[in-house]
Amino acid sequence: MRSGHRLGRQFGWLWGAYGTSALGTWLAFGAFPLIAIQVLHAGPAEVAALSSVGALAGAAVAVPLGPWVEFRRKRPVLIGMDLVRFAALLTIPAAFALGVLSFVQLLLVSVVVAAADITFRAASGAYLKTLLPAEHLLVANARFESTAWTTTVIGPPLGGAAIGLLGPVATVVADAVSYLLSALGIRAMGGQEPRPERRQAARMRAGDLLDGWRYILADATLRPLFFNTAVFNGLVMATDALLAVLMLGQLGFAPWQYGLAFAAPAIGGLLGSRLARPLVSRFGQHRVLVVAGTLRAIWAVGLVFLGPGTGGLLLVMGVELGLIFCCGVFNPVCATYRLERTATDRVARTLSAWAVTTKASTALLTAVWGVLGSVLGPRTAIGLAGVLLLATPLLLPRRAAATLAETEPVPSRT
Question: Looking at the 3D structure of the chain, how many domains does it have?
C-alpha cells in the first residue's frame, strides 16, 4: 500500500481492484474445462471449443466495443465490464444448483467474459494514461505485471484445493465475486474524469470499427511490435495443450508435478517485473524492449528435449523460468511503450484492436497446433513452435522511436 500511495490514492484503488480480479481469474484457472468434463461429460472437441471458439467469438463481439469505449468516460465502462463478468459467471453456479447447466451455457458465458475482458483492458489502458503522468506509466505497468505473476503463483493451487473441498463450481463463484469487488474498488476511487470529446458523426460507421488497426499499421514502431506480440503469444499458448498431453500422457508425470512445473517458475515473472524499471533507467527503453523480446524467444525450443522423471521436470521448470522472467521484463516495457506511442484519443480503439488480434491469433494457432499435434505428434509440434518463435525477434522495432509529439500531430476525431 505504501508503494501504491506514491502514485496516488486513485491508482492504489485501481491496483487493488486489478489484483482482486486477477486472483479470482487464477483461482478459476481451468474451471470451465473441468466443469465440462466432470459435470457435463464433454468430449475433447467440446472442451477445445470452450477455449478456441469461445475466444474467437468473444473477440468478434468486442470489435465494435473499442470505438464505443473511446468517447465515453472510462471508469463507468470499467465498472460495467466487471459487473457484466460478475453476472455472467454467477449464472453457472446458479444453473448447476438447479440442475440445468448445459454446455451451450458454458460456451455463451465464455464468449461474454472474453468480450468483457478485451473491453476492460482497452478502457483501463486509456484510463491509466489520463490518470498518471507519462514518467509514472512504467512504474504502474510493472506493478500490474508483478501482481499478475504473484496471483499466477498462488491462484491455481488454492483453486485446486477449493475444487477438491467444495466442488467444481466453487472457483467460478470466487471469480465472480472478485469482479464484484473490483467494481466496488473502482467505484471507490473517486475523483473527476473529464468526458472525452465526442466524434462529429452521430452514428458509428462500419469503417470506424477498423480505426484501431489503421492506427497501429500506420505507425512504423507500433506495427512490428503488434505482429511480434500476436505471433509470440499465439505460438506460446498454442503448445500448452500439447505439453499437457506429452507430460501427463506419454511421459507419465503426475498432475501435481505438471502444476508445479508451471506455478513455481512464475516467480521469475515477479522478479522480471521488478527489474523492468531499473533496467530501462540504465539501458534505455528501446534496448530493454529488444533484448528482453529477443531473449524470451529462445527458451521454448528446449522443450523438445523433455524426458521423463526428475530431469524432465527440472528441464520444464528451467525453460519456463527463463521464458517467464524475460516476459516479466518485456511486458510492462511493451505496455508503456505502446501507451506512449498512442495518442490519447486513440488509446481505447488501439488497445481493443491489439487485444482482439492477440486473442484471435491465439485461438487460431491453438487450433492449428492441435491438428499438427495429432498428425506429427506433440513433441514434434512443440519443437516446430519453438523454432518459429526464434524468428519473432525479427518483428521487434529496430530503432528507438521519437516521442509522439515530435513525429505527428494528435489525430483528429473522425
Answer: 2
pLDDT of residue 204: 60
pLDDT band at 407; cut points 50, 70, 90:
very low
CA-to-CA separations, 228 to 94, 178, 188, 347, in angstroms, rounded: 41, 32, 37, 19
DSSP state, residue 391: T
Q: Tell whether 230 and 165 lie within a shared domain.
A: no
3-state secondary structure of 393: helix
Query: Which residues, at least 6 apart from 22, have a Cβ–Cβ distance to it below 8 Å?
Result: 147, 148, 151, 155
Residue 256 sits in which domain range? 207-400
Tens digit of pLDDT for each residue in 144-201? 999 999 998 888 888 878 888 888 899 999 999 999 999 999 999 877 777 776 654 4
- Examine the domain organization and report whether 180 and 282 are in the same domain: no
31, three cell numbers: 474451471
253 and 388 belong to one structural domain? yes
Q: In the structure grid, which three cell numbers stand for residue 232, read together?
A: 509470440
Residue 201 forms part of a structural domain? no
